[in-house]
Amino acid sequence: MIFDALERSVFFEGLSAADLELLTPFFRPQVYPLDRAVFEQGDNAEYLYLVVKGEVAIRFKPDDGAMMTVTHIQPGGVFGWSAALGNVAYTSSAMCLTDCEVLQVRGNDLRALCDQHPEVGKVILDRLAAVISERWQSRRTQVTSLLAKGISQPAGFTQKHKEVGKMAQTKPISKEAQMKGLIEQLSAYIEHFHGGSVEFVAFDGKVLKVRLGGACLGCPLSPATLHGWVEGTVRQFFPDIERVEEA
Known about the structure:
CATH topology of the largest domain: Jelly Rolls
Strand order of the largest sheet: 1-8-3-6
CATH class of the largest domain: Mainly Beta
Structural class: alpha+beta
Number of domains: 2
Order of helices and strands: HHEEEEEEHEEHHHHHEEHE
Oligomer: single chain
Largest sheet: 4 strands, antiparallel
Distance between the termini: 48 Å
Number of strands: 11
CATH architecture of the largest domain: Sandwich
Shape: globular
Strand content: 15-25%
């Protein structure tokens, strides 16, 4: 049953029967009823999950906004990728929209297996990058809307400044200050999503330089974070920017 489920999963497409045989002993079946949370945002990130039957909603709750439904996971899809990447906590919650059957694998076991079998590990890493990129695309509209609420204010803008009303509006906010504010807010969301961070370094009006930190240091997915998540979001606010570089 476990081998067949792995073989049908798009996530593991391209792996040989021998590769799937290596993976099979590490997976365990679990059953969850309708409206049951598989895990909550902030829970210890221990397992990666593969949906066998049913549908799971991935949801994210930012500190300053309403709950977002990031995506729906159908049979053959995976979720809980924080565990596979070694993050301490899940960055989103997973809720069953129907009665669900899933397979779970410990992130530590999966990473150890990938270290021992690099060819299998490369395939799994590539698939995780694709899943994460897809989730970022579905999040971006919602996250951009949240970021837009603060983009016209420089970093460190306080309630006291808000209360001065028209006086605060008489001094225009520089493009560099707006960029700093955007990166500061974006870093908070990246930290929520996968434990990483992004720090503003310099902006000359055309080229933005940033420094990645936290879980992004040494992570093989950091280029996707830099060019997919950071640059993609920044371009929505500053479409004339030429490029984003890591300092």
